[in-house]
Structures are given as structure tokens and as C-alpha cells.
Design goal:
With 335 residues, the chain is α/β, with parallel strands linked by helices. The protein has two domains: 217 residues, no CATH class; 49 residues. 49% of the residues lie in helices and 14% in strands. The chain contains 14 helices and nine strands. Strand 6, helix 6 and strand 7 form a beta-alpha-beta unit. Helix 1 packs antiparallel against helix 11, helix 12 runs antiparallel to helix 13 and helix 13 crosses helix 14. The longest helix has 34 residues. The chain is elongated, with a radius of gyration of 31 Å.
């Protein structure tokens, strides 16, 4: 993805309202279950420490586009879920591996954090004296000590959704199995698949896109029809009220992805996309008219010159400078 598009889409998706809208759509079919205020920004850098063959620690670092922690009260207790969003302006043909790695690194990091927490707590209890040690949890088993993860520990679920900001259909693999050429059912039965959770406007019915409640609705609709002027006009007319007040960041995404030539002022907080498109088309029509007039003037100049009319008189007749007429006719300035 070009740097500009990558930066703009990442900034847009980081907005808590847009981020919540993505997962409310994908998980709950558009029902407003996840609230923006229930989301906490997370450091998108993932670091895990797998052990090498020689026992050395190998740092692994990956970068998510956006990740947030969701916390909600359920049945009297707080439940957590980690949501990650990956933005793509181009099709990524190894997306199942990429997202699977992110989720695996997330879980590995949680295990490592649990291990650190247990070690820290045991040191603290030990420093407080034997009485505190006896009152604390039982000594970890050999398996717990080895893994650093105790039997009652639980991982926080990690769900990754890919948002494709392209207007074409996603033709990349959507699972690990799609990236393999394995037909033996016994082999497949021993393997775990990983599925890409994808949002791609070209493969969504308008009714599905309408389930978005944030400006992501307008972004997805515009991108879907960005190469189809007739249908784009229909969509803009049918959703005119919302397209007349598109938030600035959403308009930035539309322009960065579609290169539609939409113009608006830097200080605008909202953009009237309908008006911008109309003005753009009017300007295009005016440019077409100017090109047509220029072409007619050039043809007239050549015809008059072939009839032997003086260049100065031709210039007066078509309304252009003598030097310009000479350039059209391929004459030097000395002629």
C-alpha cells in the first residue's frame, strides 16, 4: 500500500467509532454491541520470545496496523477481547499467514506476560516472609513452572479483521488451506486451518454495507462504485444526506484510495462529497469544451494557411497569438 494511503487508512481506522463499527458489523451483523468508550488503544508492536535450538532467546517483532482491547461487564465479571484491524489497499496473497502470525504472537506474548507476573508475585511473597508464602497459592507444579502458565490462567481472545480498501474483488487466499495443494483428507484432518476475516466492498451487497453506522458506510460505498460513474451517481443520490456531510478523515480515505480528484479545503471538518463530485464533473466538462474549441481553432488555422492566408491574419481570425499559430503550423519564429 502506498505510504500516503497506508498512513491515512491507519489513522482513520484508529478512530474508536470506526474501529467499533468494523467489529460490530463483522461479529454482530451491525448491532451496536461494542461501544467506542469500551475500547483501549494497544501498542501495535508484537514481540514474542520463542526459544532457539541452542536455548537462546530470539526476538521476533511484527507490527499490526491497529489493535484495541475491549472490556465489557458480562454476568457480573469483566471480559476482555483483543481486536486487531489490518488495512490493505492492495491484495496480499499471504494474508492467512500474516494474520495467523499476528494472533499467534499475541498469544505467545500473553503467555510470556503471565509467566513474568507469576515470577514477580512469587518474589514479592517470598520477600514478605514465610507466613505470606503459606497463605498464597500452592507451589506451581512442574508443568506450570516449565510453561510459566498456570492451570487456571486464561488467554484473552484475539480477533483480526482485514479491511480491503480496493475497488476490485479480493482474489487472494482466505485460508491457510487455500495456500496449500493438499488433497489427502487424512493429512488435512491432522491440520488446523486459519481463516481470513475479510471486509471487501466489491464483494458486499449494498444492504451489507448499509449495516455500517459510521462514515465507513460512505467510504465502502464510494470505493465499491468508484470505477462505475452511473452507479456511483445512483448511490450518491440515494444517500445524499450522508454524503453531504462526510467527515474529513473519511473524505481523505476516499480520495487517497480512489484518486477521484475530489477537492476540498484543508480546514474543512466535513466534506460535501456530492457537491465536490458535481463541481469536478462541471470542471471536466469545461475542460472538454476548451479542448474542443482549441482543436477547432487549430484546424481552422491549418485550413487558412493551406489556402495561402497570411499568418498574422489567421491569428486575428482565430483569436490566438502569432507565435502560437506558428507553433501549430510547425513554422519557425523567423517565418
Amino acid at each position: 500500500m502506498p505510504l500516503k494511503a497506508d498512513t491515512i487508512t491507519k489513522d482513520y481506522v484508529k478512530d474508536a467509532g470506526v474501529f467499533a463499527d468494523i467489529f460490530n458489523y463483522y461479529i454482530y451483523g451491525g448491532r451496536q454491541v461494542i461501544l467506542p468508550e469500551q475500547l483501549t488503544e494497544r501498542d501495535s508492536t508484537k514481540i514474542a520470545l520463542p526459544y532457539g535450538a541452542d536455548g537462546a532467546v530470539i526476538p521476533v517483532q511484527k507490527f499490526r496496523d491497529v489493535q484495541k482491547l475491549y472490556a465489557a461487564m458480562t454476568d457480573g465479571k469483566i471480559e476482555y477481547v483483543l481486536y486487531g484491524a489490518e488495512n490493505q489497499a492492495e491484495i496480499h496473497y499471504a494474508m492467512p499467514v500474516k494474520n495467523n502470525l499476528y494472533d499467534a504472537l499475541e498469544y505467545a506474548g500473553q503467555v510470556e506476560e503471565a509467566s513474568k507476573s507469576h515470577r514477580k508475585e512469587r518474589r514479592r511473597k517470598k520477600e514478605e516472609g514465610e507466613a505470606s508464602v503459606e497463605e498464597s497459592r500452592k507451589t506451581p507444579s512442574a508443568g506450570e513452572f516449565l510453561s510459566g502458565f498456570w492451570v487456571e490462567d486464561r488467554l484473552i481472545p484475539s480477533i483480526t479483521v482485514t479491511i480491503f480498501f480496493g475497488s476490485e474483488e479480493w482474489d487472494g487466499p482466505l485460508s491457510l488451506f487455500d495456500m496449500m495443494d493438499v488433497s489427502d483428507p487424512d493429512v488435512l484432518a491432522c491440520m488446523d486451518n486459519y481463516h481470513v476475516r475479510l471486509i471487501a466492498p466489491a464483494q458486499m451487497a449494498d444492504e451489507e454495507i448499509m449495516k455500517f453506522q459510521s462514515s465507513l458506510r460512505e467510504v465502502m460505498l464510494f470505493i465499491k462504485y468508484s470505477k462505475d460513474k452511473e452507479n456511483l451517481s445512483r448511490v450518491l443520490a440515494a444517500n445524499e444526506r450522508r454524503f453531504r456531510e462526510v467527515e474529513r478523515r473519511a473524505a481523505d480515505v476516499i480520495e487517497a484510495i480512489t484518486n477521484s480528484g475530489i477537492k476540498y479545503d484543508e480546514e474543512d471538518e466535513v466534506v460535501n462529497v456530492c457537491q465536490a463530485i458535481q463541481e469536478m464533473r462541471k470542471e471536466s466538462e469545461r475542460d472538454g469544451e476548451r479542448r474542443g474549441e482549441l482543436k477547432k481553432a487549430q484546424e481552422a488555422a491549418r485550413n487558412f494557411y493551406n489556402l495561402g492566408v497570411d499568418v498574422e491574419k489567421i491569428a486575428q481570425g482565430v483569436g490566438y497569438a502569432v507565435e502560437t499559430i506558428k507553433q501549430w503550423l510547425g513554422l519557425s519564429s523567423d517565418n
